[in-house]
Amino acid sequence: MISCKNLVKEFKSVQALKNVNFNIEGNGCFGFLGGNGAGKTTTIRILTGLAIPTRGEVKVLGYDIVKDKEKILKSISYLPQHPSFYDYMTGEKWMHFIGELYGFDKRLIKERTEELLKKCGIWDARNRQIGGYSGGMKQRLGLAQSLINKPKLLFLDEPVSALDPIGRHEVLTLLLELKKEMVIFMSSHILEDVEKIADEIIIIDKGEIILSSTIEDLKASYTHPIISFELLAPVENLSSVLKNENWIVSIQEVSNHYKINVKDIDIAKIHLPKVLHNAGAIITNYQIESSSLEDIFLRLVN
Ligand SMILES: Nc1ncnc2c1ncn2[C@@H]1O[C@H](COP(=O)(O)OP(=O)(O)OP(=O)(O)O)[C@@H](O)[C@H]1O
C-alpha cells in the first residue's frame, strides 16, 4: 500500500523529514502519531503528491509518487487538517461540484452524493450553505467529499482534533465502518482516539520513524505495570531518588503527582512505600494501573 525509503524533506534550512522509512501492507487503519512539528503533515502531503520529496523513494499502491502520480490519484483521497470549501455553496452543491471535477456523470454524482451525505450524517443539512455549518458538520462534509471516488486508500490529517466529544465519537464510529471498505492512514496526536480505531501505529518524532507496530504487539512489548501516586506536598529531588531504583523503568512527574512504570509490580509494592517514606513524602493517593497508548508514546518520545 505505502512504502517510504530514506525519505528526506527539506524546506531551506529546516529538515522536516530526516530519514523516514516504513511500509504498510494489508488492510485496516494505520495511526500516524507524533507531537507538534514531528513531520506528520509533511509526510502525508508527500504521500498524496502535494509535496515533492527532497530525496528518497516513495511508493503508493505500488507506483512511484513522483513519476506515476496520475496513476495513484484516482484511487486515493485526502482530507486535510483544515479542509476548505466555497462557503456560499450548499453541502449538496459542493458534492456535485467535486463529482464534476472527477468527471463523473450526473446520475452517478447524484447517487453518491445522497449515499455519502447520509453515511456522514449531513443529509438533513444538504440544502444549507456550508458557511453556516459547524466545525463538526464541515469535517463530515470533508469526509463525504473524500469518499466520492471510492478510494482504496484514504489519508486523514487530524480528522477529529477540531471536534467536540460528540462530533469526535460520531466521526470515529464512521471511520470504524469505513476501515472495512478501505485502508485508512490517519495522523493524530489524540492517542485515545487512535487507540479506538487503529490496528497498527507508526510513531514519528523529529522527522524520523521511531516505531512501527501493531497495537497488540506494542502493548505486549511495552506494557509495564504503572503505579500512580500523589503526595501531600512536593518533595525536592524525589525524581532523582526514584531514578536510582533499578526496578523503575520510567517516571512521569506533574507537580506532586507521579506515574512510574515498574518492571515487577510485586517488587515495586514492597520497595516504593519504603523509598517514599525515607524521602519524607506523605502519600495521599496510590493506585496500580496498566499502560495506555499515551503512556507508551510519552515514554518512547521522551
Ligand atoms: N512550508 C514549510 N516551510 C518551512 N518549514 C516547514 C514547512 N512545512 C513544514 N515545515 C516544518 O517542518 C516540520 C514538520 O512540520 P509538519 O507540519 O509536518 O509537522 P506535524 O507533525 O504535522 O505538526 P502538527 O501536529 O503541529 O500539525 C516543522 O518544523 C515545520 O515547522
Automatic annotation (TrEMBL):
Keyword field contains Nucleotide-binding: yes
Keyword Transmembrane belongs to the record: no
Record family assignment: Belongs to the ABC transporter superfamily.
The organism's place on the tree of life at top rank: Bacteria
Protein name: ABC transporter ATP-binding protein
SMART domains, alphabetized: AAA (SM00382)
Pfam families assigned to the protein according to its UniProt record, in alphabetical order: ABC_tran, DrrA1-3_C
Record SUPFAM superfamilies: P-loop containing nucleoside triphosphate hydrolases
CDD domains: ABC_DR_subfamily_A
Domain ABC transporter: 2-231
GO molecular function, a single term: ATP hydrolysis activity
Record's keyword terms, sorted: ATP-binding, Nucleotide-binding, Transport
